[in-house]
Amino acid sequence: MYTSKISGLGYYVPENVVTNDDLSKVMDTNDAWIQERTGIKERRHIKKGDGNSTSIMGVKAAEIALERANLTTDDIDFIVFATLSPDMYFPGGGVRVQDMMNMSTVPALDVRNQCSGFVYAISVADQFVKTGMYKNVLVIGSENHSGGLDMTTRGRGVSVIFGDGAGAAVVTRSEEKGSGILSTHLHSEGAHAKELSLEGPSTEHWVPEIIAENPQEDIPYYPYMNGQFVFKNAVVRFSEVINEGLQANNLSAADIDMLIPHQANLRISQFVQKQFQLSDDQVYNNIQKYGNTTAASIPIALTEAWEAGKIKKGDLVVLAAFGSGFTWGSAIIRW
């Protein structure tokens, strides 16, 4: 068995900044209300005509990650692309990245695990590398939420939370024992699937059916979230899956140098930080300026923390996520 490590990181966010005050002009909300409930001050949205899409942002993040890994597209053996917002219903974003980056006929896999997507994708990459099947795997998390949000008062409970962006990591074969990705831990609980969901358009709810059967004030092709229920489950599952990863490697919370939680809600991150008795220097949050970018949130935050020098060789880095599905997971990494 080989080991696997993250050899390169990159991220990209659109230039268009949308503040809480900007949102207050199109819906009944305000900066204080949003910050109190989510911790978010602003987010990035794709602007019509700026040339961005889910796949294009993924490519921009991937190009940075490859350069930092001192690799070219010829070195990539496999693409794992995590998103809930692909450019089109099918095909997925992975093959579009393969085409846009002029890669050879490398396989491309799409992961649809929403907020846990990047952790799931890292786990897939880790296993393929550790078994020796692939040497370098490109992992991307990218999201274009803004075009599918209900930007009215009716949808404010969800729409104020989400932003657009992409992050990427290169997972590379290593023979250095005791370092790299030590383990990953994944879970799901489909019983609560509809508590955070987008029911249509889908094969169960095609657009003509939705329009015909539902009154205009109850449009099911916008995302739905039972916020309090999601919050209560998230804080429990975050703690469980972090502890699971630590115990699997004979570690404790005192060994954590940096926790990168999925940026779902600043209050969730602060609750988990308090549970594990971590200082502000041991947890990285950037939801304040990007909002929740779903599958992109962990790689964006991980890249920013690394760029800021907050992650150094030998550090124990923990990634953890919880989201729609419900799905959740963690990755324990010795940098």
UniProtKB/TrEMBL annotation:
The active site is at C115, H262, N292. Pfam families: ACP_syn_III (PF08545), ACP_syn_III_C (PF08541). It is found in: Cytoplasm. The keyword Repeat does not apply. GO terms for biological process: fatty acid biosynthetic process; secondary metabolite biosynthetic process. CDD domains: KAS_III. Transmembrane segments: none annotated. Residues 246-335 form the Beta-ketoacyl-[acyl-carrier-protein] synthase III C-terminal domain. Its EC number is 2.3.1.180. One of its GO terms (molecular function) is beta-ketoacyl-acyl-carrier-protein synthase III activity. GO terms for cellular component: cytoplasm. It catalyses: malonyl-[ACP] + acetyl-CoA + H(+) = 3-oxobutanoyl-[ACP] + CO2 + CoA. Pathway: Lipid metabolism; fatty acid biosynthesis. PANTHER family: 3-OXOACYL-[ACYL-CARRIER-PROTEIN] SYNTHASE 3, BETA-KETOACYL-[ACYL-CARRIER-PROTEIN] SYNTHASE III. The last Arg residue of the ACP-binding site is essential for the weak association between ACP/AcpP and FabH. Homodimer. Catalyzes the condensation reaction of fatty acid synthesis by the addition to an acyl acceptor of two carbons from malonyl-ACP. Catalyzes the first condensation reaction which initiates fatty acid synthesis and may therefore play a role in governing the total rate of fatty acid production. Possesses both acetoacetyl-ACP synthase and acetyl transacylase activities. Its substrate specificity determines the biosynthesis of branched-chain and/or straight-chain of fatty acids. Belongs to the thiolase-like superfamily. FabH family. NCBIfam families: fabH (TIGR00747), PRK09352.1 (NF006829). This is Beta-ketoacyl-[acyl-carrier-protein] synthase III. It comes from Aquimarina mytili. The gene is fabH.
